[in-house]
Inverse folding.
């Protein structure tokens, strides 16, 4: 047996986002369910055939999803909350094992929410909010959070995994089905709202395992030879008691397999050595996968541990599944060679570090990319080619890929020495950062001056920034880019959209307006397009959540802002209204996290460069007379390392946490920096970006869809005058945290925007009343969870009118909040 190549998962959307178009057409009733299901069968087939033709040895199945793979697993094991079952499932015994009919309606309702109106009624007869959504570990992929009840009964509800395996097999392609491991599935979930205090989903493991045993049994009967169980929590800080959970789970699953089907335990995004005792010496698995891109330091320890188990295979993740840079094949082959020397060829699998879900489909469409930079890149298809080459070298000798290796080394060397990468002006400016550049007056002083200038009412209303990107907006943008519209015509179109947006907000009664961001394709891409050091793709899409795709820009060199970006359009919008209007910017950490980042320097240095560029734009806006500037940082929590021991260094350069933690008390930044000059190495990116303004200028920030209670202290130290934060879809979890105490003004989201349902006034009123149990009335803003870009205008109009009416009634009716 020879060394084989493998990936842990393939991008779902398709080369041209075929899945997005299929699903959204189905949601819009433009195609039938049968057309949708046939379309996804064809898309899966295309992906499997492509991987086989590329020469990949181990091809995954069950990595495909109509919306989210975590939701797939919750549905698969019957973890369907009662509120959805009661509406859609007439007879659970007759629920189809495939996602169709009632099952498909239930599935999408869990993901997106559901409303049904009776004819002639404005109030919904059925009104189901969507389930909570949050980030997948430290990525920008959003997953649906499973809900578990203490009395939860599990049942195999979907055999999608079996259907996909059999479909691939009918094509002559043997696949390795992919699953979230049973322990990680429970750890990813949360207790239902009615669960008693002290209940943890992991307590349900014994009830869940029979479903997983049935899955193994069905696939063994179908002829599967191996299964992949992703236990990604093994890279996290875990309670030692969980070791028994892993032992229980895999002892039972391996017993069902009985040697007929191999079980690979898969980990990624970090180092498993702190949890090595969870695996060795007793866990009965056939193979182990480790991520050697994110955690190369674990290699020797894991290799020596695996060597003591003669039948155990080691899958080594040497090709980066999270970033888009071409791999140094010679360096990767050195790792492969060491593994083969220690274990033997047949015990080594050469793999991607994690699923390729996080990288674009292929470079084939990037005909407009600068050839020099394109030569430095590898998307999913190119990564598979790298894996196949490494496997060939392992089996046939490195001379068998001599030509490809030489070309690869030329690319690697060209990137290292390219003059495009380094900008001396940027390097010198970083050296000139001082403590005064990160100092503002105390908030208590700023607050008085800002209130005098802005004269806002109690419970001021605002939105997060973006308004619907309609088909007309997208059509105009495409026409401009293709030359069918001149710049003057396009600019006039955008101004008309801004004018309509301003008028609507005024009519609606919103207090602090936005211009709507119709000129922006994406909150990161738009700013990157105006900065040196970025490059952009035509078709480099990756899935963010559901059918929502983003096209991360690529940071290849030093970041510099050559001229203002938003000043003209923001000034134009402000001239249309007497109400204050926010200048909308994306923060440095989010610019980093939502880009494909250069890997030739520490991430913190790239963030500092971004912070200086954003700082320049903040100054530009203030000089232009803009009184409120929002610097969005939705990715701040996302960037937090998975292990707590690594948090301090990250928060040092992302915010200013370690400085205050070090002193244990609040002091002015001037005092701290003057006494701890060593901290000047970290420009504390958010403060560096946000602090050049006068006290009368109000700085806002926004965050969403993460466990913010982990870093509440750090968020407070950002010292934004106002923070708007997602809080509705997560059901006030942020406010419920025992450690919650935001010292400035705050607007927890009052309704979920990632669902097409329209929240009613009673719902919002109840939510605001609940929020005021934790917040001061004079410091509370009223706003949605997030931006409105993905919604339809009809939904937005009704939701925002309800929102402003709730704020108005709260101002007028003291009794509504007096008991709080």
């Amino acid at each position: 047996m020879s060394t084989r190549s493998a990936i842990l998962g393939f991008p779902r959307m398709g080369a041209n986002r075929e899945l997005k178009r299929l699903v959204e057409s189905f949601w819009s009733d433009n195609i039938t369910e049968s057309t949708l299901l046939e379309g996804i069968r064809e898309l899966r087939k295309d992906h499997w055939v492509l991987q086989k033709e590329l020469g990949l040895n181990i091809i995954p199945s069950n990595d495909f999803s109509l919306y989210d793979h975590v939701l797939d697993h919750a549905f698969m094991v019957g973890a369907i909350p009662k509120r959805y079952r009661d509406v859609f499932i007439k007879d659970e015994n007759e629920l189809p094992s495939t996602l169709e009919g009632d099952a498909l309606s239930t599935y999408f309702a869990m993901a997106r929410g559901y409303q049904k109106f009776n004819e002639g009624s404005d109030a919904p007869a059925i009104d189901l909010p969507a389930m909570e959504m949050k980030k997948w570990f430290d990525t920008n992929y959003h997953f649906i959070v499973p809900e578990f009840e203490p009395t939860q009964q599990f049942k195999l509800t979907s055999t999608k995994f079996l259907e996909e395996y059999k479909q691939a097999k009918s094509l002559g392609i043997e696949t390795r089905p992919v699953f979230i491991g049973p322990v990680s599935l429970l750890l990813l979930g949360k207790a239902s709202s009615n669960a008693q205090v002290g209940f943890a989903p992991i307590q349900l493991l014994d009830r869940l395992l029979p479903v997983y045993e049935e899955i193994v049994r069905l696939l063994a009967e179908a002829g599967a030879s191996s299964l992949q169980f992703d236990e990604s929590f093994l890279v996290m800080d875990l309670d030692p008691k969980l070791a028994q959970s892993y032992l229980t789970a895999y002892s039972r699953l391996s017993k069902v397999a009985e040697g007929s089907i191999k079980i690979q335990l898969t980990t990624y995004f970090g180092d498993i050595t702190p949890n090595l005792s969870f695996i060795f010496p007793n866990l009965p698995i056939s193979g182990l996968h480790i991520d050697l891109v994110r955690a190369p330091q674990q290699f020797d320890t894991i290799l020596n541990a695996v060597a003591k188990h003669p039948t155990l295979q080691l899958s080594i993740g040497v090709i980066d599944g999270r970033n888009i840079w071409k791999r140094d094949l010679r360096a990767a082959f050195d790792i492969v060679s060491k593994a083969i020397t220690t274990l033997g060829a047949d015990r080594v699998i050469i793999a991607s570090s994690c699923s390729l879900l996080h990288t674009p489909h292929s470079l084939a469409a990037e005909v407009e990319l600068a050839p020099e930079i394109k030569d430095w890149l590898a998307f999913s298809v190119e990564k598979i080619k790298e894996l196949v080459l490494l496997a060939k070298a392992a089996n046939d000798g490195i001379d068998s890929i001599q030509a490809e290796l030489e070309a690869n080394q030329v690319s690697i060397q060209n990137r290292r020495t390219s003059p495009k990468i380094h900008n001396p002006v940027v390097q010198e400016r970083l050296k000139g950062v001082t403590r005064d550049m990160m100092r503002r007056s105390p908030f208590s002083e700023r607050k008085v001056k800002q209130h005098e200038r802005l004269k806002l009412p109690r419970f001021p209303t605002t939105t997060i920034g973006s308004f619907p990107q309609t088909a007309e907006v997208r059509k105009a943008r495409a026409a401009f880019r293709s030359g069918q519209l001149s710049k003057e015509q396009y600019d006039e179109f955008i101004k008309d959209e801004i004018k309509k947006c301003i008028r609507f907000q005024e009519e609606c009664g919103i207090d602090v307006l936005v211009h709507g961001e119709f000129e922006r394709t994406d909150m990161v891409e738009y700013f990157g397009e105006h900065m040196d050091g970025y490059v952009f793709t035509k078709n480099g899409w990756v899935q963010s959540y559901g059918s929502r795709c983003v096209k991360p820009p690529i940071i290849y060199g030093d970041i510099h802002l050559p001229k203002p970006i938003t000043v003209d359009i923001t000034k134009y919008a402000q001239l249309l209204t007497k109400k204050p209007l926010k200048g909308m910017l994306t923060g440095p950490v989010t610019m980093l996290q939502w880009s494909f980042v250069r890997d030739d320097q520490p991430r913190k240095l790239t963030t500092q460069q971004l912070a200086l560029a954003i700082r320049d734009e903040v100054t530009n806006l203030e000089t232009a007379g803009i009184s409120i500037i929002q610097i969005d940082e939705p990715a701040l929590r996302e960037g937090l390392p998975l292990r707590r021991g690594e948090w301090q260094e990250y928060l040092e350069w992302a915010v200013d946490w370690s400085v205050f933690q070090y002193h244990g008390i609040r002091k002015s930044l001037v005092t701290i920096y003057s006494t701890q000059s060593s901290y000047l190495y970290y420009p504390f990116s958010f403060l560096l970006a946000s602090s050049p303004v006068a006290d009368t200028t109000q700085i806002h920030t926004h965050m969403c869809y993460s466990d913010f209670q982990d870093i509440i202290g750090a968020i407070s130290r950002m010292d934004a005058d106002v923070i708007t934060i997602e809080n509705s879809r997560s059901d006030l979890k942020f406010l419920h945290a025992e450690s919650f105490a935001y010292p400035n003004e705050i607007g927890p989201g009052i309704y979920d925007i990632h669902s097409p349902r329209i929240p009613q006034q009673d719902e919002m009123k109840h939510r605001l009343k609940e929020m005021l149990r934790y917040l001061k009335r004079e410091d509370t803003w009223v706003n949605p969870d997030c931006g409105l870009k993905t919604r339809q205008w009809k939904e937005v109009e009704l939701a925002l009118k309800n929102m402003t009416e709730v704020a108005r009634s709260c101002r007028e009716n003291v009794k509504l909040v007096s008991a709080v």
Residues 55 and 388 are 6 Å apart (CA to CA). Confidence is low (pLDDT under 50) at residues 657-683.
